[in-house]
Design brief:
Helicase, Ruva Protein, domain 3; GTP Cyclohydrolase I, Chain A, domain 1
Length: 278
């Protein structure tokens, strides 16, 4: 006989719905441990049924080791903002972030077999899937290692995260503050490249053709259109290359000037920006 108290106990353990808990206990003849496993398996097995549903809510998280030598950047998705703000989902996303940082794995058994206090990350995933009737997934993840310094920035609300890699081997408080400012710049201004050397020639040629055509359509001669296009290419660099952008916190400076303030040999090595659902 499955009592209401048993159903409540299973619900408290797993967070699954009352009907699902009752069915799990029925299927396992009231064995609480088997019922927990049943619900975990049910959650994992139901993923395929949700695969065609849109999951554009969730969290984007950046995390670095204490020494700034390794880092992780993840986006974990769900279907609704209600679930995205749920404390258990939030902890699940943070657990993934920590697991990527600890293992260097971004998918597969090496990630999901990561051991938590009393279960694996995969067990936690199955519990989350059993509790919430939504498509929940690790959409993308990156692991970083550097001989320089990694700086992670999480924007308020955790819908936007940035990982910045600088060439500086170690940073004092002032340097770390400037690196964080650059990370915030990336979050706010969404540059496409570190510098103009990274701009591919075909992308640049396409921009030049667009600028020329715009100028001709405005009634300019071919010669004038050529000069206008060159001027607009400079503007393109200033808008899309991080080190050429106007520094948000001090418009008298470029980000390149801020990099020089960090150190004479300091360079931006790379950056990645995860914006939820993009």
């Amino acid at each position: 006989m499955i009592s209401a108290q048993m159903v409540k106990e299973l619900r408290d353990k797993t967070g699954a719905g009352m009907a699902d808990c009752k069915k799990a206990l029925d299927e396992t003849q009231g064995d609480m441990q088997l019922a927990v496993e049943y619900l975990r398996k049910k959650g994992a097995a139901s993923v395929s049924k949700r695969s065609d549903r849109a999951a554009n809510e969730g969290l984007a998280l950046a995390l670095t080791s204490a020494d700034g030598k390794t880092g992780s950047l993840v986006e974990v998705n769900c279907e609704t903002d209600f679930v995205g703000r749920n404390a258990e989902f939030v902890e699940f996303a943070h657990a993934i972030s920590r697991a990527v940082l600890a293992t260097g794995a971004t998918e597969g058994d090496a990630l999901w077999n990561y051991s938590l206090e009393s279960k694996t990350l995969g067990n936690l995933r199955d519990e989350i899937l059993a509790k919430f009737n939504e498509k929940i997934e690790l959409r993308r993840a990156k692991y970083y290692t550097t001989s320089g310094t990694l700086v992670g920035y999480n924007h308020a609300g955790n819908k936007l995260a940035v990982m910045l890699e600088m060439s500086v081997d170690s940073a004092n408080d002032a340097q770390a503050g400037l690196m964080r400012d650059i990370s915030m710049q990336i979050a706010a201004m969404n540059p496409l490249y570190v510098d103009r050397a990274q701009v591919k020639s075909d992308a640049l040629d396409k921009e030049i053709e667009i600028y020329k055509e715009q100028a001709v359509n405005e009634g300019k001669s071919a010669e004038i259109a050529e000069r206008i296009a060159k001027g607009r290419v400079e503007k393109y660099y200033q808008e899309n290359c991080l080190v050429e952008q106007s520094f948000v916190k001090d418009s008298a400076k470029t980000v390149g000037d801020v990099v020089k303030d960090i150190g004479a040999d300091a360079k931006v090595v790379s950056f990645h920006r995860y914006f939820l659902g993009e």
